[in-house]
Amino acid sequence: MEGVDKLGTHYYKALKDKYIAQRSSAMASLETFFQNPVAVAEHGDFIETMDKQVSELVEADDKLRILQLVFDEWAGMPLSKGDIDSLKRG
Asked: What is the pLDDT, as a whole number, of residue 77?
């Protein structure tokens, strides 16, 4: 994977941003359920709905971790402190 062009870097960043956004969305949903379940009253089965959000969180974390482990150096993207903390959790 030698030589990264600018377009490749943009695709890499877009993919990384997508996984970060998916992770943030799942976290926000879970926090809402845990802190204020009345706010999401339209969900009849809280456990199933929350389980789905946990699955989405795991999937986004896994994808982000693999992307960073395999491609960060290739793309010339330094890991941020948040990225490093995320990798340590996995």
From this structure: 61
pTM of the model: 0.70
In this structure, the dihedral spanned by the alpha carbons of residues 27, 31, 32 and 37, taken in order and rounded to 10 degrees, is 130
The phi-psi region of residue 3 (left if phi > 0; otherwise alpha if psi is between -120 and 50; otherwise beta) is left
Q: Do residues 65 and 86 touch, judged by C-beta distance below 8 A?
A: yes
Domain boundaries, position 45? 6-89
Task: Return d(Cα 18, Cα 40) in angstroms, integer.
Answer: 25
- Residue 1 domain-assigned (yes or no): no
CB of 50 closer than 8 Å to CB of 26: no
Element containing residue 43 per DSSP (H, E): none
Give the whole-angstrom CA distance, residue 25 versus residue 47: 18
Whether 27 maps to a domain, the answer reads yes
pLDDT of residue 53: 94
